[in-house]
Task: structure prediction
Amino acid sequence: MLVFITNDYAELSRQAARMIANAMRKKPDLRLGLATGDTQQGMYRELVRMHREDHLDFSRVKTFNLDEYIGLPAEHPQSFRSSMHKSLFDHVNIAASHIHIPDGSPRDSFDQACNRYEEEIRRAGGIDLQIVGIGKDGHIGFNEPTSSLASRTRPKTLTQQTIEDNRHNFPAGEEPPAAAITMGIGTILEARRILLLASGAAKAKAVALAVEGPLSAAVSASALQMHPEVTVLLDREAAENLQHKDYYRKSLDMSRKLTPDRLW
Ligand code: F6R
Result:
């Protein structure tokens, strides 16, 4: 893992957007995996700015979101589909047919909807770059603790911690969903590159377990240790519990010298 520690959230957001923009410039038909949540909002704002001011072109990009709530209609203001339109899709030149988000209210069965999503990813040629956030319990996507490290897209029951963490996005009195469809850990690990973003002290424990802890289904994000092309982009607070910060800085400097093409 390449661990990149930025000063603050603004720098983290700019850096993440720059990495995505570089990947899009190298491969204009990039298959881009996206995440929702608070962490990515600054990165989406920066991508929108780059589209407006620097002509960053989304016309050939195809996107695949990690997850969607079960039980909310797609047009519900708190659905991940609505959130993605508000933060990014409505402000850039992406074709509607290039946007893929799991269907949280399928007309047929959830099994069929999940298989269809996996098939859509396969048909597009797989995901080139997957963006992931991390939950306080170490989840990626909504792969809650004890998820199989080989799991595929499926419905997943959310932990009470995750439900509480999501509550602030819902109007008072409205109960946040208790389940979601999520790409599995096995699905995520098939992406060619993965970029994990984490910001704030509340994520420091999960980040340390994911990066330096044992590989374990108790911390889904630890499965990223199995992937050869993972970049972990943190702000100082999220990096606080890491034991090897100096080593990560040195290793980044060395990579700049030895393998600059592998950097973003
Ligand atoms: C959302 C997702 C989740 C979030 C995670 C962190 O698509 O996959 O894993 O990335 O729950 O959420 P925030 O960024 O709101 O703290």
